[in-house]
User: Fold this.
Amino acid sequence: MAVIIEPFRIKSVEPLTFTTRSERKEILKEARNNLFLVDADKVLIDLLTDSGTAAMSSRQWAGIMNGDESYAGSKSFYRFKEVAERITGYRHIIPTHQGRAAEKIIFTILGGKGKSFVSNTFFDTTRANVEYSGAEALDFLTPEGKIPHLIAPFKGNMDTEALEAYILKRGAENIPMCVMTITNNSGGGQPVSLGNLRETAAICRKYGIRFFIDACRFAENAWFIKTREEGYKDKTVEEIAREIFALADGCTMSAKKDALVNIGGFLAMNDEALALAARNLLIITEGFPTYGGLAGRDLEAMAQGLEEVLEEDYLRYRIRSIEYMGEKLTAAGVPMILPTGGHAVYLDAKAFLPQIPPAELPGVALANALYIEGGIRGVEIGSLMFGKKDEQGNHVAPPMELVRLAIPRRVYTQSHIDYVCEMIIEVFRKRDQLRGYRITFETPLLRHFTAHLEAL
Assistant:
C-alpha cells in the first residue's frame, strides 16, 4: 500500500507553537545549547522521545474514568495484571510508575561492585541504574548492527559468540543477569530475531545466568519477527510475543512506549524469592504492590494500551510510517541507519558531518541544527550520551554517532513527517557550515540530560 492511512480518526487536537529562526537561536542559547533544556512550548515537532508521548485512545480515556483508586486490591490492578499475565506468561506482575523504576528495583537487588550485567545494548537509563549499583554494563551487539548503512533484517541481535567468550573469561558467578533490549533502542531501533533470542536464552541456561527482556517495544519487535523471520508470517503478534517472553526469566517494561500510555511500567518474573524482594523494595520506593506508584486510572489505561498495541492494523501503520520517512531521506542521500527500525529514524551524524570529530559532538551539532532550521527536537545518541574518557583523559567514542528522531505514537500526521523530512534535507544541504560543541558542565551520570554546551 503506497499511501499510509492512519487506522484511527482524530478526536481531539492540540495547537502547535510557531517560532522564527532567530527566536530559536536565542532559545537554544538560553538553554545552554542542550535541547533537553528547551521548553516544550518552544518546539514545533517534538521527536525527543517516543516515551510517554503517545496519544491515548477513546477506550483508554474511558478506562481513566473507570479507574479504581483503592489503595490495596484495586480492581484496576487486577485488570492490568490479567492482561500482563496473558501476554507475558509470568506469574509475578509488579507495577511501577515507569520502566526505570523497575530497573532500579531489579539492579539494586542483583547489582553491586564486582558484578557485570550484559546486553545486546543497554539504553542510557538502564545502564545508569546498573552503574549506580556499582556494577558494570557491557554491550555485545552483533557486528552488523554497528554498520549504519548495512541492510540486514535483525541488526539488534546479540553477538552470542562474544557473549559466551566473555562469560567464560569473566565467570558466570559474576554475571547476575543478561538483558535483551527489544527493539534495540541505542542500536537504531533495530529488532532482535526469535532465533537469536533462543540462542541467547540457551547460553544463559547453560551457565546459570538470569535472562530478562527489556520489553519497552516488544510488540514492534514481534511485528518485525512476523514480517522478516521465516516461519512466523501466519502467527499473530500476540502469539509471537508470548513465545518471546517464554524464553526469558522475566522482564522490565516501560509502558510509556508500547503500552501507549503517558506513565506506567512493570517488572515481571517467575522467581518467587526474587519477586518477594522486589515487592519489599517496591513498597519502600514506589507504593503498595497493587498500585506501585500509579493511580488506578493509569493501570486501566495501561491494560487497555497493552491490548491495543497488539492490533496488527496499528502495527502495520506504525512500522510503515517510519519506513516512509526513511525512504524520503534515503532518496535525498541523507545518511542514516538502515533499514529503519520500529519507533524512530536514526541519522548517522558521523557520516552527515565528517568534518566534526567525535570529541566535538557531531550528534549535538546535527540535532541543534535541526532545531534552529525547523523547530524540530531530536536527541543525540553518541559521544555526549555514551562517550567516556580513558585513564589519560582522552575521549573514547561509542561505536556510532547518531541523532534519534523518535516518533510519538498516534500523534503526528503524514504532513508533519513530510515537513520534518524537508527540514532534514535542508540541513543536509548546508552541512558543511556546521561546527561542533564542547561540554562546559556535566553530571557524573546521564550527563546528556542536564549538560551545558558551548558552540566551537
Notes: The chain has 16 helices and 16 strands. Residues 160 and 200 are 6 Å apart (CA to CA). The chain has two domains: 21-50+312-455, 58-308.
